[in-house]
Write a structure and sequence with these properties.
single chain, 341 residues, mainly alpha, two-stranded antiparallel ribbon, 13 helices, 2 strands, globular, binds 3-hydroxybutanoyl-coenzyme A
Length: 341
């Protein structure tokens, strides 16, 4: 009986079939989305093999790859001082730290690869100037005290931002962040200890510490990203449990933690508007120069060109290492295939 209703015109049949499958696709997409939203609401981890909305995948890829690039470009300002560290102890610490940053880049590229982009694609985006990395690494390291400021302030800010990322809804990113944060904690402490040594040293050393501090203070406050009102991604990434604390709240936490540390070091903070607000129990800083931040982000900071050029040269000069690793992997795969018969 039902068969009487079937239209046998081939074109009609094809159209009806397509419409049914689009309808079915919409229904199954809605079911998948509802289940994804429920898992986010339950604070469950999303894993690489799980279904996820395309926009969730895209924003994670954006954030994790930018983060990976930041770690790798972040090796350059400090790497500049490895040959000039003032003692063997300081050189060993700095070498270990810079090497850690390279390792962080590798964990993060691996986490990003689980989302479907290759490392080569991500690196091309960086080297062609299409991908962002943290604004902070476009400032120069003019004296040895800059190495202390990077550890104490930049790694201190990085920890503030990255500890909440250990609870990120995407499993591979969250797990990478746990290991990274442990290492960042050592980085921050070595930087503070370096600054303490300078601040307890000669007049010249104290002056060097103060001068470096003056240059890093504002760029570090900018590092947390634009004010919440101008942050294009925050609302969505917080709904998805990627970002857990907003840019402004993290900046505030950093300010509250760091002002007493600067006071302990005997450094004066280069902000005449800085004050402690008794009613809120928080430090309040003066206005941040956001034009400077956007200029640096858009490629016109003090060292943007130098940083990218250095990375490009390293990439070109490292081509033989990639080729050798690939040839070795092919050889191993061939031997394994032969052994399996
Ligand atoms: N530098 C460069 N670009 C920045 C930036 C910064 N400090 N802060 C924000 N931006 C960019 C964003 O990437 C975004 O651009 P896009 O749309 O092209 O991607 C735009 O400005 C608007 O900012 P939003 O606030 O909307 O962006 P997010 O919500 O992604 O927040 C973030 C920015 C807080 C940096 C966030 O992406 C994040 O937490 N990322 C992970 C941590 C990270 O990458 N840290 C970088 C430092 S790593 C480091 O310091 C290494 C350590 O070893 C020292």
């Amino acid at each position: 009986m039902y068969t009487q209703a079937i239209d046998t015109d081939p074109q009609f049949v094809a159209t009806q079939g397509a419409m049914r499958s689009v309808g079915a696709t919409h229904a199954s997409h809605d079911r998948l989305l509802a289940s994804f939203d429920q898992r986010i609401a339950n604070d469950e981890k999303i894993e690489a093999q799980d279904w996820m909305p395309a926009a969730y995948r895209k924003t994670l890829l954006r954030q994790i790859s930018q983060h990976a690039h930041s770690e790798v470009v972040g090796m350059l300002p400090e790497g500049n001082w490895i040959t000039r560290a003032p003692s063997l102890r300081r050189k060993a610490i700095l070498l270990a730290k810079v090497q850690d940053e390279g390792g962080h880049g590798l964990y993060l590229y691996s986490a990003a690869e689980t989302l479907g982009s290759s490392r080569a694609e991500m690196l091309d985006a960086l080297l062609e100037g299409r991908a962002k990395y943290s604004s902070i690494f476009n400032y120069p390291t003019l004296t040895w005290a800059d190495v202390g400021c990077i550890g104490w302030l930049v790694d201190g800010a990085a920890i503030m931002n990255q500890v909440p990322l250990c609870r990120c809804s995407y499993g591979p990113y969250a797990r990478a962040m746990i290991r990274i944060c442990k290492e960042e904690s050592f980085h921050q402490r070595q930087g503070f200890e370096l600054m303490l040594a300078l601040c307890q040293g000669s007049e010249g050393q104290k002056q060097m510490a103060q001068e470096a501090f003056n240059r890093w203070w504002w760029p570090v406050l900018m590092m947390f990203g634009p004010p919440d009102a101008d942050s294009v991604h925050s609302t969505q990434t917080m709904q998805w449990g990627i970002k857990r604390i907003s840019n402004d709240n993290l900046r505030q936490q950093f300010l509250d933690a760091t002002v007493p540390q600067a006071q302990l070091l005997g450094l004066s903070i280069p902000d005449s508007d800085l004050r402690y607000d008794d009613s809120s129990g928080h430090w309040q800083c003066g206005p941040i120069q956001w034009e400077e931040f956007w200029r640096v982000v858009q490629g016109d900071g003090p060292c943007n060109r130098e940083r990218l050029n250095t990375r490009r040269i390293a990439h070109e000069e490292g081509a033989w290492v990639r080729e050798a690793a690939q040839a070795y992997a092919l050889k191993q795969a061939g031997q394994q295939a032969q052994a399996l018969g």
